[in-house]
Amino acid sequence: MALEYSAEGLRQLGVVTGLMAAGAGANSEIFQLRNTSGKNIRLLYAGLSVGADATGFAAGTAVFDIIKATAWSAQGTGGTAIALTAPELLDHTNQNPSRLVAGDVRVATTAPLGAGTKTLNASAIQALVCAVPVAAGSVLLYPQDLFVVDGPDFIPFTIANNEGIVIRATVPATGTWRAGVNVAWSEVA
């Protein structure tokens, strides 16, 4: 399957959370992408990697997932709003600027993101579970795909206006950590 390309273009973005403090609750939102463009966008890829930082975790497991959000009427809060006007987000120099605006994409800094107003689907698109090492500086999750368009029969995930995706984390309470999030999407004319 050939990916759709127009002047609206393909986008890719890699972001890293700040040093996440210990004690984040279950299903803490660490990344949000909300479509407010009035047009559809198509998710092509989402990936995640996670590492323990200066404070090790209690032994246990961690769960990370990606879930669709609908009826998204108010942006999330906290973290860092990602500006999507930079030319380095363009895969081709003749693309138009992204239709998503600052605040539509957000990454956690030292605490989980505020949810905003939205409805999360009952089930995740994909979930990952990993063992949590107790040593500081350890890898929790080597780079993993959460969603990928791969092969001729795999259909991109369409995100309509006021819908989006959220990446969530549930980790043991004692450790500090960082996550790397990578996403790619197509903005359809």
Explain what you see.
The chain is mainly beta and 189 residues long. The chain has a single domain, classed as Jelly Rolls (Sandwich), CATH 2.60.120. It is 0% helix and 48% strand. Strands 2, 4, 5, 6, 7, 8 and 11 form a seven-stranded antiparallel β-sheet that branches. Strands 1, 3, 9, 10 and 12 form a five-stranded antiparallel β-sheet that branches. It is globular, with a radius of gyration of 16 Å. It starts with 9 loop residues before the first strand and ends with a strand. The model has no long low-confidence stretch (mean pLDDT 84).
* Number of helices in the DSSP assignment: 0
Rounded average pLDDT: 84
Per CATH, which architecture?
Sandwich
Distance separating the two termini: 18 Å
The value of Rg in angstroms is 16 Å
Supply the CATH class.
Mainly Beta
